[in-house]
Amino acid sequence: MVATVQRKRIEILLDTPLVPRMIEIIKKVDISGWSLIKIASGGSRAERWDHDEVTGAAAKSIILMIANEEKTNQLADAIAPLLESYGLLITIGNVEVVRGDRF
Amino acid sequence: MVATVQRKRIEILLDTPLVPRMIEIIKKVDISGWSLIKIASGGSRAERWDHDEVTGAAAKSIILMIANEEKTNQLADAIAPLLESYGLLITIGNVEVVRGDRF
Amino acid sequence: MVATVQRKRIEILLDTPLVPRMIEIIKKVDISGWSLIKIASGGSRAERWDHDEVTGAAAKSIILMIANEEKTNQLADAIAPLLESYGLLITIGNVEVVRGDRF
Amino acid sequence: MIVETLTSPVILFFILGFFAACIRSDLTIPEPFAKAMSIYLMAAIGLKGGVEVASTGFTTELAAAAVTGLALSFALPVIAFYLLKSFGRLGSIDAGAVAAHYGSVSVVTFVTAIELLTNQGMKPEGFMVGVMALMETPAIITGLLLARAASKDAKQDGSGNLAHEVLTNGSVVLLIGAFVIGIIAGTEGFAPVKPLFEVGFKGVLCLFLLDMGLIAARRLLQTRKITINLAILGIILPLINGTIGTVIGTSIGLDPASAAILGVLAASASYIAVPAAMRLALPQADPGIYLSMSLGITFPFNIIFGISLCAALANFLAPITG
Amino acid sequence: MIVETLTSPVILFFILGFFAACIRSDLTIPEPFAKAMSIYLMAAIGLKGGVEVASTGFTTELAAAAVTGLALSFALPVIAFYLLKSFGRLGSIDAGAVAAHYGSVSVVTFVTAIELLTNQGMKPEGFMVGVMALMETPAIITGLLLARAASKDAKQDGSGNLAHEVLTNGSVVLLIGAFVIGIIAGTEGFAPVKPLFEVGFKGVLCLFLLDMGLIAARRLLQTRKITINLAILGIILPLINGTIGTVIGTSIGLDPASAAILGVLAASASYIAVPAAMRLALPQADPGIYLSMSLGITFPFNIIFGISLCAALANFLAPITG
Amino acid sequence: MIVETLTSPVILFFILGFFAACIRSDLTIPEPFAKAMSIYLMAAIGLKGGVEVASTGFTTELAAAAVTGLALSFALPVIAFYLLKSFGRLGSIDAGAVAAHYGSVSVVTFVTAIELLTNQGMKPEGFMVGVMALMETPAIITGLLLARAASKDAKQDGSGNLAHEVLTNGSVVLLIGAFVIGIIAGTEGFAPVKPLFEVGFKGVLCLFLLDMGLIAARRLLQTRKITINLAILGIILPLINGTIGTVIGTSIGLDPASAAILGVLAASASYIAVPAAMRLALPQADPGIYLSMSLGITFPFNIIFGISLCAALANFLAPITG
Ligand SMILES: Nc1ncnc2c1ncn2[C@@H]1O[C@H](COP(=O)(O)O)[C@@H](O)[C@H]1O
Ligand SMILES: Nc1ncnc2c1ncn2[C@@H]1O[C@H](COP(=O)(O)O)[C@@H](O)[C@H]1O
Ligand SMILES: Nc1ncnc2c1ncn2[C@@H]1O[C@H](COP(=O)(O)O)[C@@H](O)[C@H]1O
Ligand code: NA
Ligand code: NA
Ligand code: NA
What we know:
The complex is a heterohexamer, with 3 copies of chain A and 3 copies of chain D. Chain A is an alpha+beta fold. Chain A has helices spanning 19-29, 69-79, 83-86; strands at residues 4-15, 33-39, 41-44, 48-50, 60-67, 89-98. Chain D has one domain: Na+/H+ antiporter like fold (Up-down Bundle). The model of chain D has no long low-confidence stretch (mean pLDDT 92). Chains in contact: A-B, A-C, A-E, B-C, B-D, C-F, D-E, D-F, E-F. One sodium ion (NA) is lined by residues 76, 102-105, 241, 265-266, 268-269 of chain E.
């Protein structure tokens, strides 16, 4: 059987216009990489939105990252001050990673 | 370090035409929000499909939600009767959430 | 409450041109199904890429699968030889699945 | 006419797409582009139909065609349902779902038929666009009633919603909306926007049929849910419905071109409005069956043979009744 | 003129979209298609404006209009800001964000105005495209300064970045770039590419306004953040700004058509460049408020009434000053 | 000619895109729109080429050009491979992958060359489209053989699959398919669909090159994998290959325009068919290298200088051989 190691799977759901700012922060924490997934639509109790808008201002994306626990904590600390004003949603889960030495 | 709380990460994979019905159910359970991700293609043992169809009837999406355990159970119960006929695929995982009091 | 069973949630992040090869392997392991999510953009320490390219060669996707532990291990073993040359990123997490007898 | 059909670029692009999928080429038309073309085509035919009606006015023929179209869409699923259950060996739920598709219409088959007929000097009336829009939804009701009468599993949940979802279906709204805009704007108001909708039309139809060829062939190749009997029904149903449509069209006094178009509408099977409605109203029905029959078999058959056959029948009947 | 406006296909498609969203139809225009149309429209108006300037040359009127446009974009948010705080009861941050939208411009409102005016024999100067491009961004600066002066929460972080992001905003670069290409290429160089940008223009505008109708109505229906007072401001602000723009435009010696266009630019509210900038610079401001006001109220108002009112005012003022 | 090139809107849009990416503007062309334009351009040139061949018939020149094109595509990677290994200091696998790109062709470079040459009264033969389609894939085989001969890591797995994947590559199928449809339909059959493919062509090319400018510059800015020597090769290889192609084209008796186009095809580097094939056949090769060289360096060089140089060379050689 292939060897696996435990890593964190981090998802940050945020407004697409804010993505470049977030990437800068991610780079400062020196996380090995990131992948962006577009959200097609969404809603909360108050509102509903669709990606299908000429104005990109309402679009949302998920930044997905695999990182070790240490980097994950550093990232969480680096993002903390923005949480309220940027309206971020951050989840951190445990995953087994094959070829995990890279992260 | 930032404080996190444990929440459930729920993914419902379903046919895109059924999404509005599912959102109604989600709203009844009063989950705080949901995000929709498009599936580009997929397959099972019997068939393979692509999103690239003029008819949207074969398209599939994932509804992603973060919720606490109580709401998660309520949602699972509310969806249960539809499972077979709608062909839903539901997964529930544990995640740590920053700013988790909202859910 | 609805009954759930524990299954593995497998994500394989790979170059889109390699997807058909990977599907063949998945079928050999006889996993019950798979779903494909497009990555819009991404980056590592060295480079940054966007999906918005005429050449599809730089595009990346995630293959998402739910499977039981046995099949997951078989899949990991089947993919192992390709890991380095294909530059795959594989994560395996635990999830509770409703209607889990299918997997 | 089938030879002329087969050398028209519109049809050749369909064949190219079908062929590309058969040799398992990775050629794909991006989905938003296909949707964009479909929106363009519906806006264009809606507008043109409306502008024509604005200049010819409302006639008794128009009224007769509209009523006939509605009646056909309500009635045709009944025949289909019994053939699908008996010869096709489908259960009531699947049979009802498939039957609804055959009562409704395919916009692209309609547009292609207009193109091919007009090229051969048979120009159908502009109001047939309106007839098509009317025929899109009644079949859904019949299909559902048939499935529910025969099966207790086809629950009633959400019927109220369904009526709303069917009547506000995007393609129905766009077609009827553009048709009404054409009537309001008239020839003169249409003039400034005409270039886009005229110049691009046939070329866009080529590229759209390229995509339809890819989709039809991939459906056929990827499904394992079509039995021989279902495949045969995918050809027999358009033959029966096309004959009924053309004969009735001729008998209510339509010109041969319009009668042929009514036949094509009857022969065609929906692949946009109805599948989405069935996924909601009869979620237990297997989409693999209805999409494969409608898109994989009946659509190509109609494009390549069905349209020509309806035209031939209409021309044959014309001197008899005329 | 409002009657003529309401029977133009361009406006009818907007109404169709608005109506479809109100009856909760699932009609949607795929987002990449909408973006493609918006790129096409901006390239087309940029090119045409540039080609016209290449043939008329740089005039004093051009310089006067450019300076006036810049000044308006800087100044208009101030009025808006105080009305939004007092009558609209918004906090400083939200008021600053909304005010920036009303100082900036809406490209589609501009294009629609050019269409409607030209159809009625009022042809604005080509250089107004350049004026529009200049007016897109100054309002962002004023809006930010107002928010920051009044609130300590509107932090200064990333101002350097913001200047860059605003000036290199995709739509600004495309508009100005196409404008410059038009000037370099001139009438002759433009000729070979002209067919696409001429033939398709009005038809694409129809389909784009169909989408804008859908978006505007859905915004209105889905938001719960618009109070009656804000809705009223969504109509009063374009009236005030449109009057100021038209009067100043006339007084600096612009022909009635160009003066009306300056009024329309002043009256219109941004929904592309400014929302993205505000999301970055004032993340605490609620996008639900500024998008709903700009897209849901002011945009439809301008399309259906505002443009005609500016034209009427410009025509009324012309003999007085001329 | 380079001055004329630089004031053509087609090239100016490329420069605009390049410039926008350099100032880090967020301007983007939605990917499905770019794919749609690429499908449109390939269908249009395929059709037009086929229609021309239908009217001129199969000539010995056509046969000579086809054979020469095939031979060039097989042979050119060999030169490239040794230069990339020696001067470029690449390993065998990367060198083989890059070499394959330079043996194959770039459709957009071809289309732009046709545009620029035709504008200057040099009209290439219609059959050159077919030659281009033939040149797309042989280089892949040579590139792979070179990599495998020199390296044991370049495993043989899936060669059978690869042949299939390369021959059924979407762009190859579409180009050849449209070419054949053009031949079957002929001038008359093409007439009804011609408007879309004629009217839009040059304008679409502008918007497509805008996107290519963005992509080329972003590639250059985002990569860290291009050494000075590789950058130099990105310019030297098209010079060598372009000279070989133009000289051979002239010597087999092609008119100057067609000889120049053969030179452009030889000089151009693939960025659609080959990268996808290399990702499959040589997954160990670094896409960062071959995409950056092909898209980031050679493509812009050819658009702005290479095409003009091939044309100049062909015109210079014509009186010598003619
Ligand atoms: N740690 C990571 N988390 C998420 N995605 C990653 C990570 N590392 C790499 N990627 C993705 O994989 C792509 C290729 O990475 P690499 O193989 O390191 O060049 C990147 O562009 C990202 O999209
Ligand atoms: N509990 C949740 N689970 C998943 N997505 C959510 C959740 N809450 C909010 N969202 C997403 O975040 C967006 C903004 O939410 P909010 O900040 O609450 O207005 C929503 O439109 C959803 O796309
Ligand atoms: N085990 C699985 N993991 C991920 N996706 C699946 C799985 N099984 C099915 N799917 C998705 O669900 C769709 C329908 O599956 P089915 O209901 O089995 O026909 C497939 O086409 C896949 O997109
Ligand atoms: Na029918
Ligand atoms: Na304004
Ligand atoms: Na080459």
